[in-house]
Write a structure and sequence with these properties.
This protein is an alpha+beta fold and 726 residues long. Helices cover 31% and strands 25% of the residues.
């Protein structure tokens, strides 16, 4: 449970206090530990980057354990897939993935405590009751969980557990404050950047000036003269014959490393490096993922945004991969009374986690300790074991709180870099990225484009729908999502262009573009059909429910319609008092949940401003309502900022934006005054919340801008078209 490395951040007095308690903990399973004084420690298995899983996941444990929440403390667990499961934060899966396992763990521990009490009191276990951490019997006998914990720990794991019904919940669906709020607000060391041990060195990497380049030679003579500098050297991340896992992406393979005593010394010394770079040419890589082993060619061109845009236009005119076909779309478009066609574009986006990439590593010939912000330790461990030539049981991964993730920290290359550097210098090392490192040599949301077409008959009925989407280096199309299943004639196609600019998951991958384009386009189609935008969507969803087209529709039409109806009612969609606002609506399904937003926009100081937002969510049972509301509000702010301002461009392979002075983020005074969040009330198992509210924000903003400016917006960020329209 506790290791010397973990305790190194505590003061001596703290260590004495904690170590004095170690032997008193009774472990009922990997998640639950109880002290004789009835204090309960619950282990959070999944990494935390602000979505509050360190509170919501233990709430599920505590619910079935039937413990008093005020006696609970929560600790982030180390990577331990045997005791703690998959331990992955991403894809809006944390609560969904652990909904049953954690409740079963809590119920099992409760049953073990009951059995221990029954044996001690010589009564049938069926007569032992629990409430708020206490065991009681009708005879008047009682004991705390702490009294029985050591005996319960020896009880065999029970089977055939009965879990609570939702109507019996006393913790789940009741708001609980973030268990780390005191640490966060008082500045206690909980993030990867805070991690420190005695003798630790700082390392930084000098990257090539552009994607598509590699190191030719370097001169470190002046760097080595700088104060505090220990070494300068080169390393390869992956060997020539290395088989990468599905998430083993990398920004650059050749590492030019500066190691020294402190961050400031290394930053200054790195500036003295003289490095010569050359074009890398095409690179062949072997990747082993869910689709099996495949050879990938990474092109060597020095890419520019202007040429990429032209290339995408050319690809868009070529035949593409057919992803889904219903009916006879070609005939429907040929015979249509009206055809609407629009093309939407979006740039690369940087993740911009507030905490730049960092990781600690201490690697010896026998073992490795690594610690830092990581979304997917289970995906990273096999690669780390291969790179270090160590068995997995000799690698300890400690997870710190993350200062943002959004998909960026699912890719463990910065962990591997830290470990290889530590092995090279035979010392504990913390690898640090500056903001400029992270933004210019990061892992980005891809560039996307999509052309949508809709066919209306003489009665203004939608009779055909066609989406053809592409991107660099992947296409964005989800072929089986709405409005698939609601239109008789439907066609979805996709194409993609290879690139050496590294991309990865970005909050609601692909959906964050699809929702923007699709929901903007549906508003335009509704207007052409002479229908209210919400009523138009509800008509299509009614068709999808009553007479669905096709067999592979991913969404539940009832749940989709439910969030639209809820946001319509809560926003007073048609109320005359709201005519002073320029209102935009959008709804979307992704990651198993449903979201809808109404954005109210006004002009303020000559600029468009989102003053109010109404949000409706259907994510099943809501574990922690306050935290869930915060999650949606954060997604709204994030979506508005990216829709209006987010953009990363390249020229000859080099990123043109390097920090927040030229990569525009939403600012505090631009955040809506009011974001009102509502949840559909049901007893469905939780279906995810981190990503689903994000994508439809883009579409709602675009539709509100149309009401405000009288023109449609097809290119993100919308700021560029806004400036030409003002």
């Amino acid at each position: 449970m506790l290791t010397v490395s973990w305790l190194s951040s505590f003061r001596s007095a703290d260590k004495t206090e904690i170590l004095g308690m170690v032997d008193q903990w009774s472990s009922l399973n990997g998640y639950i530990h109880i002290l004789p004084d009835n204090k309960v420690k619950l282990i959070c298995p999944n990494p935390e980057f602000g979505q509050n899983v360190m509170t919501s996941l233990p709430m599920m444990l505590a619910e079935e354990l039937d413990v008093d929440w005020k006696n609970v403390t929560v600790e982030m667990g180390p990577h331990d897939p045997i005791k703690l499961g998959a331990q992955f934060t991403g894809g809006s899966n944390s609560v969904r993935m652990y909904w049953r396992p954690l409740r079963e763990a809590g119920a099992a521990a409760r049953q073990m405590l009951r059995e221990a009490a029954a044996e001690s009191w010589n009564v049938p276990v069926s007569e032992v009751r629990t409430k708020a951490g206490m065991l009681t019997h009708a005879s008047g006998k009682s004991a705390s969980y702490g009294d029985m914990a050591s005996s319960a720990a020896r009880v065999p794991l029970p089977k055939d557990l009965k879990l609570k019904a939702p109507q019996d919940f006393s913790i789940i669906s009741k708001s609980k404050k973030n268990v780390e709020i005191e640490k966060i607000t008082s500045g206690k060391p909980i993030f990867g950047l805070d991690y420190s041990v005695d003798g630790m060195l700082i390392a930084m990497i000098q990257h090539p000036p552009a994607f598509g380049m590699k190191l030719k030679s370097f001169d470190s003579s002046e760097t080595l003269k700088m104060p505090g500098i220990k070494d300068v050297f080169t390393l390869k991340l992956y060997g020539d014959d290395f088989e990468q896992g599905g998430f083993d992406t990398r920004t650059f393979n050749d590492l030019l490393v500066v190691v020294g005593n402190s961050t400031w010394e290394v930053i200054n010394a790195r500036k003295k490096l003289v490095a010569n770079w050359e074009t890398a040419g095409d690179v062949r890589e072997t990747v082993v993922g869910r689709a099996g082993k495949r050879e990938v060619t990474v092109p060597g061109a020095l890419e520019s945004t202007s040429t990429q845009m032209q290339q995408m236009k050319e690809y868009a005119r070529k035949p593409a991969q057919e992803l889904r076909r219903d009916g006879d779309p070609e005939a429907a478009f040929k015979n249509a009374a009206q055809v609407i066609e629009r093309t939407f574009n979006a740039p690369f986006l940087a993740h911009n986690c507030m905490e730049p990439m960092n990781f600690f590593a201490h690697v010896t010939s026998e073992k490795a300790l690594v610690a830092g912000p990581l979304q997917a330790p289970g995906w990273s461990e096999p690669t780390l074991a291969k790179l270090l030539n160590l068995p997995a049981d000799k690698i300890e991964i400690q997870m710190t709180r993350m200062g943002g993730g959004f998909g960026r920290r699912a890719y463990g290359h910065y962990l591997y870099e830290a470990a290889l550097i530590s092995k090279k210098v035979s010392a504990p090392v913390k690898l640090m990225y500056t903001r400029e490192d992270d933004m210019t040599y990061g892992i980005y949301r891809p560039m996307y484009t999509a052309t949508y077409r809709a066919a209306l008959d003489a009665n203004k009925k939608l009779i055909a729908f066609h989406v053809k989407g592409g991107g660099i280096p992947e296409h964005p199309v989800h072929a089986n999502r709405f409005p698939a299943g609601a239109v008789d004639n439907y066609l979805a196609e996709g194409w993609q262009i290879p690139s050496n600019i590294t991309i990865g998951a970005f909050r609601a991958p692909r959906s964050n573009f699809n929702a923007a384009a699709e929901q903007s386009f549906l508003d335009e189609v509704a207007e052409a059909a002479g229908k209210d935008p919400i009523a138009f969507r509800l008509e299509l969803l009614k068709r999808a429910k009553e007479k669905p087209v096709g067999q592979n529709n991913e969404y539940d039409a009832d749940r989709y319609a439910g969030v639209l109806e809820l946001v319509r009612d809560k926003s007073d969609w048609k109320k005359p008092d709201n005519e002073k606002y320029n209102r935009g609506v959008a709804a979307y399904f992704c990651h198993n949940s449903y979201a809808a937003h109404v954005v109210d926009m006004v002009m303020r100081d000559g600029q468009p401003y989102v003053e109010r937002v109404f949000s409706a969510m259907d994510c099943g049972i809501v574990i922690n309502p306050d935290a869930a509301t915060n999650m949606v509000q954060g997604a709204v702010v994030d979506g508005i900022g990216n829709a209006l301002y987010g953009r990363l461009t390249h020229k000859e392979g080099a990123a043109q934006q390097s920090n927040f002075h030229n990569y525009r983020m939403i600012r505090m005074n631009e955040v809506p005054k009011r974001i009102q969040v509502h949840f559909v009330q049901n007893d469905l198992d939780p279906t995810g919340l981190g990503e689903p509210p994000f994508p439809p924000v883009f579409g709602a903003v675009a539709n509100a801008l149309y009401r405000l400016k009288g023109k449609r917006f097809y290119n993100q960020p919308f700021r560029d078209e806004l400036e030409s329209a003002i």
